[in-house]
Amino acid sequence: MSLAIVDAREWQNMFDLRTGAKVDAVGPRVEMMRAVLKKFPYPGDMDPGSNRWVSDIALDLIGTYHPRFVFLNYAQQYFSIRYSAMDEAEQKRTISDLFAEVERFVRLSGFTPLVVGRGGMTPLLDFIDLSKLDGLAIATHWSVMYAGLHGPSEADLRTLADHPHIRMVVERKEMLRLFEGSPDEALRLPEYLLVAKKGYAFKTVSSVMRRPTMIHEADDYIPLHTPLGAVNDITAIRSLIEDNLKDHRIALIFLEGVGTNDFLLPLAPCRNGKEWYCHEPGAGQYLTITSGRHRVFDYPSGYKSYSETVGEKEYPLSGYFTSLPSDTIGEAIPDRSIAVGNNSMFMHTVTGADLCVECFARNLSNQGALGVIHRQGK
Questions:
Q1: Is residue 81 exposed (0-12), middle (13-18) or buried (19+ Cβ within 10 Å)?
Q2: What is the pLDDT of residue 377?
């Protein structure tokens, strides 16, 4: 059973991660997690100290749990650039502060870094409103470039084909061809995948996030820095880590909202997709990296999560996830591992790490921090 501890500063509660039921548990890992959550309250998504919070918790757990693999996610700069009206100088200072924090963590931890920028940011030019279509259009909160379309009319397809801000209308069978999908995986896909042009974001009846000033890009190539060697595709990052864990303690560090033009370390460009498809910085990109293979069917753009939920949703603290993805690097390696990040929901779902700490925030609303204990026996 995976345990989840929610820390809201004034109180802590423990739950069964799968069912959401309150539980009581004791043990060294539980006490370790309770202590680190109490010691480091989450300052907020856009707070200047948010990235330092990530480093401080990771350093604390390194000192007490002694992991060999660390997964970090720094996201404060992404939220600030996305929702604040920054000029170019302010954006550069924000990115510079981020890299200074990464350097501080690497220096104090002694871990060998593998730093990945998840893709750059671009100004929002306009929304593509899909709410008036006959069919059902779905765009997830973290997707701007892609939307899924279910049950479209012929009029819908003509309208979309002629839309000046839509780059592609892709049939389901093309996604199945490109990623060798199975019949079961086909059931999770929309009938059509819509692809926006750069600077445009889809708006659907399910779009409830606050309006951004900047949006992320789905870059063909994303930057990677590490002394461990070069890889030319994000699917090769996992094997690079596994091949070097015997001789190095490794930190896989993700930087939200950072592309090749913003990356302040020596870099190698890394392919971020296949043929015409590029991964947005969401669950699919994370899982592609942590599993070493393209993962576009777990939670695809346009996924109707409610269609697979019968009765009470399992994993109620895990956002739209209805199960924990398998074959992640933290699950596979025999070494101890931790994951810490200020991009909520993802640390405990996509990494497979033994111990995970993340902000517990939704739509910039700070509800505290979440600690998850996936295993206590290592």
A1: buried
A2: 84
